[in-house]
Amino acid sequence: MRFFEVKIKIDKMLEDGTQKTVAETYAVDALSFTEAEASITQKMQPYITGEFNVTHIKIAQYNTVVFNEGELFFLVKYNLITIDESTGKERRNAMYVLFRDETIDKAKEHARSYMKGTVVNYEIEAIKETKIIDVFTNGD
Question: Pfam families given for it (predicted)?
Fold first, then answer.
């Protein structure tokens, strides 16, 4: 699975009835940039009432998304700690996972439980809230 982060500009109807162009970021499971653009365009089709542009697409740092209760998305950076057999020095390899959760504390709790049972030593280096609105996978 490979995720792309896709930024779009779309005209949205506000609660007061006015229309405003807003920028939003989505994560899309796709095989290529072209597929990511086609997928986001298809997913957003029912919501397009005016202007719609894909403004930026990049390959996401994460390959895994963990869905929990909540509407916010948090990017967790793990450092996987191994010992280099030839030098005896500690090596840290970064691994990123995106979590959907209610709060950063819940994301931290789920990030710890996600790694339970692994044989690799690890540390959680960072957890940050992202601007991602939603994640679209191939099954959606």
Answer: DUF4494 (PF14902)
